[in-house]
Design goal:
The complex is a heterodimer. By secondary structure, chain A is α/β, with parallel strands linked by helices. Chain A is about 40% helix and about 20% strand. Classes of the chains: A alpha/beta, B alpha/beta.
């Protein structure tokens, strides 16, 4: 029986925001659930994030922004994902994202937006259900 | 309670009580098998004088305003005057933030606190590619002296005390503030306020670093030296545990890592040739006040005592003002919930009360809508009113350190101090705070505590009202503050205008001189002041320093 490939998640902090408590907790929870997690660290440009996703052959890009710059950063990542031909990568966002911004982010291709108070099990469940199947 | 006979009879009484409790427990078990607080300190069922055996009042507490300052740094504390009510505020452009400052001052706020946007905090002008989407978002955008002048329009700087949350490019923003004062005709010796200027917690917890540790420490000690001679009433640093706690640390870790950073700054300043009693009195601190009410009160008291001992015993400080840990407090942003946000008003009130009972010098109370956005004017008014109710209605400020002598609070104060000291010893063994951060020790400790906290919430062993218990179906809060998205374009246009109207030769000359000085060891403050007065932008000054100092590369730690 072939060994099942672990889901590979690129966790990223786009923009200048330094709030990384949330993303680090999520990294730990995803890892504990059996996923492979690569964390980029702070201050990543959309270009760097998508390049890292390509290089790491990520199935998922999980981004966290608490600074209010999500309306620029998330769609920019989606543009690049499409440009690079990896549109089957599941791209998710979280942080402090006002409800009214969510429809436009989803229209841009962000699969899900998780706000404050989200249970990590909900994020894990969402990834397991929606990630591309190899 | 030193009378041996009385202690013996107390021991007997406690033994009987324990027997009785054992019977009660068979019928009615307690809510938990073990009660342990977030710092890992076991919490006993009841505390008695037996928990204070060997307690030496004068040594451990003494009187307010006396070493080791456990009870207060001032002899009369709030009976003289209340803490400074200081709401951290800033968003959009300088004009919009200036309007908010006038609103806050009119509402009875007694000090200003400037929140800068991320590009400003990281030393980028608004037209830098990395600033895209970030201009004016989490604070006010300041590119040049022009913006700084607008920020303080109509606010006489000799009459307010101003706190500025600025770290890596602190010298530049400080210089702009001084330049505004000069334009207002206010001499530097009249200026009162604080700059955060605390780079070490940026590496470990907050993320707005620019330069590597060594040149960063030099900028910090340059500010110490410059202010000692030229801006004597200014608090030259606010050594911050707030962000360490927000990043997930426990209360004990907050005290330990903050004071360990403090030790590193004192050592750096001494190494730079300053005398501990020259700069010691202008060091200030900044703590979080979180949900465990009594632990927080104990934490503030423990921090005061521990710092006094460190300054006296470790550094030989003699001026009493060098020994006094004066601090600002902000209620815990990370404790706010997006769910049932009005509950945040209560959380904030309890946290604010613990800061007051812990003797804070100034206080920021969070607004109930801050898990969702920057605060709206209504929400910030409720937050300020919370402080005013504590001050003017509850009477808790009428006597100094009212919880002193509580068997539990004193025991907890001792334990927080002892456990923080253990961490400080560990950090010393690693080579000090800078080395401990470079090795990732501090970050890992904080990260592990944060994960534990989240796991407790998800397991339900830690209840967050409205989040994992007592939930309701609800509409999200409306009426949130929205930053005008045009601020980025406006700032870029203003930069263009600035660069086409200023004396560019004077700017280039000032920057060249700064660059040369940065490569040597002269104090950079006067040169930065010259540059910003010539209308060099924040980004230009920081780029000049980047060219000499290089940039910090964070270690990948997760």
């Amino acid at each position: 029986m072939a060994v099942e490939r672990k889901i590979r998640v690129l966790a990223a902090k786009p923009g200048l925001d330094g709030h990384d408590r949330g993303i680090k907790v999520i990294c730990a929870a995803l890892r504990d659930s059996g996923m492979e997690v690569i964390y980029t660290g702070l201050r990543q440009t959309p270009e760097q994030i998508v390049a890292a996703a390509l290089q790491e052959d990520a199935d998922v890009i999980a981004m966290s922004v608490l600074s209010g710059a999500h309306n620029y950063l998330f769609p920019r990542v989606m543009e690049l994902v499409k440009e690079k031909g990896i549109a089957d990568v599941l791209v998710m966002g979280g942080g402090i994202i006002p409800d009214e911004d969510i429809p436009a982010l989803k229209a841009a291709g962000i699969a899900a937006v998780f706000g404050p108070g989200t249970d990590t099990k909900d994020i894990i469940g969402f990834i397991q259900e929606n990630v591309r199947k190899h | 309670m030193c009378d041996p006979q009385k202690m013996a009879s107390l021991k007997e009484a406690v033994a009987k009580y324990d027997e009785k409790v054992a019977k009660v427990l068979q019928k009615i078990p307690e809510r938990k098998k073990e009660f342990v607080n977030t710092s890992g300190i076991p919490v006993k069922r009841v505390y008695t004088p037996l928990d204070m055996e060997g307690f030496d009042y004068m040594k451990q507490l003494s009187l307010p305003g006396q070493y080791p300052y456990t009870r207060a740094v001032q002899p009369t504390a709030y009976r003289g005057r209340y803490w400074t009510m200081r709401q951290y505020a800033g968003f959009g452009s300088a004009e919009e933030t200036n309007e908010r400052y006038h609103f806050l001052l009119k509402s009875g706020q007694t000090g200003l606190s400037v929140a800068f946007d991320l590009p400003t905090q990281i030393g980028f002008d608004s037209d830098h590619p990395l600033a895209q989407g970030e201009v004016g978002k989490v604070g006010v955008s300041i590119d040049s002296l022009w913006d700084m002048e607008r920020l303080f329009q109509g606010i006489p700087l000799e009459q307010v005390s101003t706190s500025m949350t600025i770290n890596s490019p602190c010298a530049v923003l400080m210089a702009m503030y001084l330049a505004v004062a000069e334009k207002q005709g206010v001499t530097f010796d009249k200026l009162r306020g604080t700059v955060q200027n605390d780079i070490l917690k940026e590496y470990s917890s907050r993320g707005t670093y620019i330069f590597p540790p060594r040149p960063s420490m030099r900028l910090i000690t340059d500010i110490f030296a410059f202010c000692t001679s030229d801006v004597p009433q200014w608090n030259t640093i606010s050594i911050s545990g707030y962000h360490i706690r927000e990043a997930g640390s426990t209360a004990v870790q907050e005290v330990a890592f903050t004071l360990a950073n403090g030790i590193a700054y004192v050592e750096a300043a001494i190494k730079a040739g300053l005398k501990v009693d020259e700069f010691g009195p202008r060091l200030s601190f900044f703590f979080n006040s979180h949900l465990d009410f009594l632990e927080e009160v104990a934490k503030f008291r423990a921090a005061r005592r521990l710092w006094a001992k460190i300054m006296k015993e470790r550094f030989g400080a003699a001026d009493p003002r060098s020994l006094m840990l004066r601090f600002h407090t902000q209620t815990a942003g990370c404790s706010l919930t997006a769910q049932q946000p009005l509950n945040n008003i209560m959380r904030t009130a309890f946290q604010a009360l613990s800061a007051v009972l812990g003797g804070t010098q100034s206080l920021h109370t969070n607004s109930y809508d801050e898990a969702l956005a920057l605060p709206s004017e209504n929400a910030v008014q409720v937050a300020l009113r919370t402080q005013q109710v504590i001050a003017y209605e509850t009477a808790v400020a009428d006597t100094v350190d009212p919880l002193a002598g509580s068997y539990y609070v004193e025991n907890l104060t001792d334990q927080v101090e002892a456990r923080a000291q253990e961490y400080i010893d560990q950090i010393d063994r690693l080579g000090g705070a800078v080395a401990a951060i470079e090795k990732g020790f501090v970050q890992k400790e904080i990260g592990a505590a944060a994960y534990r906290y989240q796991q407790e919430i998800e397991a339900g062993s830690r209840v967050v009202v409205g989040l994992n218990k007592f939930q309701v179906k609800e509409e999200r809060l409306s009426d949130l503050l929205k930053v005008d998205p045009s601020v980025g374009d406006r700032q870029v246009a203003r930069l263009k205008e600035l660069k086409s109207t200023r004396d560019n030769a004077a700017v280039q000359k000032a920057l060249a001189e700064l660059k040369q000085a940065a490569a040597g060891d002269a104090n950079l403050m006067p040169l930065i002041l010259t540059a910003v007065k010539a209308l060099a932008t924040l980004g230009e000054v920081c780029d000049t320093l980047r060219a000499v100092f290089g940039e910090y590369e964070a270690p990948a730690l997760v």
